[in-house]
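4.2 Preliminary Data

To establish feasibility before requesting continued support, the project team ran the inverse folding procedure on a target of 374 residues. The structure was first converted into the token representation described in Section 3, and no sequence information of any kind was made available to the design step. The complete token record follows.
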């Protein structure tokens, strides 16, 4: 269920042309994907059973997939946001012409597109029956309340910070930096990876009879100022704060993962603690990267003085609310890989195993974070 909940959470924050069609379309995706349990959903973020069409270029890539009714070319989406956008592009094509004159109610919509979508009799009724479940998922997605567990050890709060977002620079945070070899923006990947990391932290904690509160600085495509990202961790009394970014370079041969901590010379009051935490995160990150790519390059653990800007404002103690706090929030800043490299793009962004690979890498990072909290 974690995957469909993640999709619902993203969808609840997206703006679409007719927002009241969210529950009927999510209901359709619940049906098509077996509540996110189909391989098409798990491996390719295709929750709609969308077959490949040339008009989908730029929104999806073509993937050969063996469905119950035989092998065919299907759409593969790089992110959940990409699927949502792609679904509406798919509907805006010729076979569905006229759909916008059939949107008085969600039921009208599915009764119009249903018979074009599939010859299955009673399809629209099946979708309509799932609308209450979809509406509940959308409401929960917006709230994202952690499940309580009796007798569990509480690990406290971790704040994850997906880099960038939105369309404009806000408080020193640029909307996007790197663009992958296959054309996917860094901001989309940081959010997807952080949501996977959150779900891995929760899943692993649950298996170990621990509870953990994981909050993201953003769960939609919006930007948040640099100081506000850190202040969000402080306001949530986070024990740990992990920023996630991807690197890019004009030299497409460059690869490797690196992790930064705030240097004492940049005013960090507890450099040794942050360095130890960031180091543990980096060891987990490299273990994950090596698991999917034995040749993965380790660019090392570094102080933020080694970045292009010579300082990472998001790790500042003053913004994190650490001044005078007996147990400061520790921070680490991951530059996971160079997505401008073709091989890395295949591994983490667009290749057939990209989504399982993301999960492997984030599971290793989650393990390192949990070990640090226990
Ligand atoms: Zn970045």
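Position-by-position output of the design step:
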């Amino acid at each position: 269920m974690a995957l469909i909940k993640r999709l619902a959470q993203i969808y609840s924050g997206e703006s679409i042309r007719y927002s009241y069609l969210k529950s009927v379309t999510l209901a359709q995706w619940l049906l098509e994907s077996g509540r996110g349990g189909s391989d098409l959903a798990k491996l390719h973020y295709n929750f709609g059973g969308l077959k490949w069409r040339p008009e989908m270029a730029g929104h999806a890539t073509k993937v050969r997939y063996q469905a119950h009714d035989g092998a065919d070319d299907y759409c593969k989406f790089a992110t959940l946001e990409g699927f949502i956008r792609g679904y509406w592009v798919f509907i805006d094509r010729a076979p569905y012409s006229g759909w916008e004159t059939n949107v008085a109610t969600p039921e009208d919509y599915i009764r119009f597109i249903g018979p074009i979508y599939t010859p299955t009799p009673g399809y629209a009724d099946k979708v309509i029956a799932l609308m209450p479940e979809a509406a509940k998922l959308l409401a929960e997605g917006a709230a994202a309340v952690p499940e309580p567990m009796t007798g569990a050890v509480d690990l406290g709060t971790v704040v994850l910070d997906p880099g960038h977002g939105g369309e404009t620079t806000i408080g020193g945070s640029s909307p996007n930096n790197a663009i992958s070899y296959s054309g996917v923006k860094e901001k989309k990947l940081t959010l997807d990876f952080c949501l996977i990391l959150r779900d891995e932290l929760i899943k692993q904690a649950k298996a170990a009879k621990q509870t953990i509160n994981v909050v993201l600085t953003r769960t939609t495509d919006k930007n948040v100022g640099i100081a506000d990202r850190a202040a969000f961790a402080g306001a949530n009394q986070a024990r740990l704060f992990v920023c996630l970014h991807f690197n890019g370079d004009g030299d497409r041969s460059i690869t490797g993962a690196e992790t930064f901590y705030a240097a004492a010379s940049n005013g960090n009051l507890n450099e040794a603690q942050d360095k130890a935490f960031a180091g543990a995160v980096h060891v987990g990150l490299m273990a994950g990267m090596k698991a999917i790519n034995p040749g993965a390059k380790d660019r090392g653990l570094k102080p933020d003085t080694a970045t292009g800007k010579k300082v990472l404002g998001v790790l500042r103690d003053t913004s994190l609310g650490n001044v005078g706090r007996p147990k400061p929030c520790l921070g680490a800043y991951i530059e996971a890989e160079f997505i401008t490299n073709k091989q890395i793009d295949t591994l983490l962004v667009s290749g057939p195993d990209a989504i399982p690979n993301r999960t492997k890498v984030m599971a290793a990072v989650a393990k390192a974070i949990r070990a640090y909290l226990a």
